Amino acid sequence: MTAGLIVLVAVFLLVVLVMSQSVRVIQQGYIGAVKRLGEYRALREPGLAMILPFVDNLTRVDIRETPRTGDRQEVITRDNVTVAVNATIFSQVVDARLALFSVSNYAIAIDQLSRTTLRAVFGSITLDEALSQRERINVQLQEQMESVTDKWGIRINRIEIVDITPPAQILLAMALQKTADQEKRAAILQSEGKQQSAVNIADGQRQALIKQAEGDRQASILRAEGSRQAAILEAEGRAQAIQTVYGAIREAHPDQTLVAILQLDTLGKFASSEGSTIVVPYEAAGMMGAAQALRSVLNGSGGGTPAPS
Q1: Residue 163 class from Cβ within 10 Å (0-12 exposed, 13-18 middle, 19+ buried)?
Q2: CA-CA distance, 81 to 166, in Å (whole number)?
Q3: Residue ranges per domain, the chain?
Q4: What 3-state class would DSSP assign to 31?
Q5: Which of 23, 61, 174, 281 has the most beta carbons within 10 angstroms of its beta carbon?
Q6: DSSP sequence for 230-291
Q7: Is the pTM of this model over 0.85?
Q8: Fold that domain 66-166 belongs to in CATH
Q9: pLDDT class for 181, splitting at 50, 70, 90?
């Protein structure tokens, strides 16, 4: 009984050992590579995997995207400036067979490759380009690393430069240069502002002079038109007055007596003006005769005898 029990226990333990060597559980995000007596046989998907005990060996490979942040390292740019650089590499295994059998340790290989690639890329650019063109550097790093990692079954999804630190004296010089650039820009903006202000003032004065000249011109035109209109109206009034007087005279059928009266009335108006001097020409004898005739007419109308002259 004791020997039989021992045999049963031994058989049970053997079965347990065989089952433990035959059944494998592969977690999601991993894939299993089966080797039989050291030779690659097949890949197993996530889940329960059965293998031959003591003959097959299953190696789990992480196929998730894995970020790897490298150690900070010093690189020399094309203009001989030493800068400290740190980058994060996002890689992913796309072919487990190549990742296991084409390189001894793909994680260490990626780290070393990133170091050499960083030196190569930064050695081909200047410090200013390194500080201002990070996207370009990321693309160059990814392209150069992919040309190597494709043979390892590893895909480089992207590379991000974490930090670029120039030496302290370079940082100080850059700060001074930035300050000088800002002062220069401020002076330029101030000068441009003054120039624009002067231009605006001159333009405003020019516009004001133009408006004033246009106003003076318009006023002169209006004054000239007013004077012209006034002269026309005055001439028309005189012409109308003369025409009216002439028509009245013609309708009255004037005789020599009326003409003499008008002449005397006109002479009287001249004589009543202060400081006026009347010069009677030779032709005025007719006017004197007209006055004598008028006096005779007036005396005759009164019924008396004409007074001696």
Answers
A1: exposed
A2: 8
A3: 20-64, 66-166, 257-269+286-299
A4: strand
A5: 61
A6: HHHHHHHHHHHHHHHHHHHHHHH---HHHHHHHHHHHHHHHHHSTT------GGGHHHHHHH
A7: no
A8: Tetrahydropterin Synthase; Chain A (3.30.479)
A9: confident
